[in-house]
Amino acid sequence: MKKFLTMIFWALVGVFLIILGQFFIPAFREFVGVSELFLVPFLVFFLLGMALIFFTRREKIGNLLKSFLLLAGISATGFFVSILLHNIFYALGVLSGHIAILKYLADFLSIIFFFLAILVCPLAFLTGTIGVIILNIKRKLLKI
Question: What DSSP state is assigned to residue 35?
Fold first, then answer.
């Protein structure tokens, strides 16, 4: 992997760990609080995911490694987009409570994007990350 692409990848992993800390470590959550600082790692995660997608597509690397890098980048950007769309559709459902079909559609889409953000994107990111790490370890062991 090229050096710049490697730096972006590991920065993305680091920001993912910060996001996990915000969710699962109470002391870290209290440190950040409910201020605007809570959203900064999500925005950085999104931007690093976009950069990873962009630079991965430009590099001449193996197909399997490229697939895992793209999976990590796409899931990182999808995480932020899914959170944003979940909140938009939730608000639309609340605002359109008097129009039954629109409320149910907005609630359905809100639930779909919630599960994408909470389950699918983090699992896809972990799959891509673990795949990249294993391929790099394998390459170094075989000295390819």
Answer: S
Render pLDDT for 23-60 as a digit per residue (tens, 0 to 9): 888 877 777 666 667 778 889 999 999 999 999 998 88
Confidence of residue 92 (pLDDT cuts 50, 70, 90): very high
Which two tokens mark 131?
A: 């795949």
Q: How many residues does the chain have?
A: 144
Rounded to an integer, what distance in angstroms lies between the CA atom of residue 60 and that of residue 143? 18
End-to-end CA distance of the chain: 11
Q: Contact at 8 Å (CB) between 15 and 45?
A: yes
Residue 38 carries which DSSP code? G
Rounded to whole angstroms, the Cα distance separating 93 from 102 reads 7
Domain containing residue 106 = 3-142
Phi-psi label, residue 25: left if phi above 0, alpha if psi -120 to 50, beta otherwise? beta
Kindly provide the b/e burial profile for residues 33-56, where b requires at least 16 CB atoms within 10 angstroms of the residue's own CB: eeeeeeeebbebbbbbbbbbbebb
Q: How many domains does the chain fold into? A: 1
CA-closest candidate to residue 90, choices 70, 111, 65, 71: 111
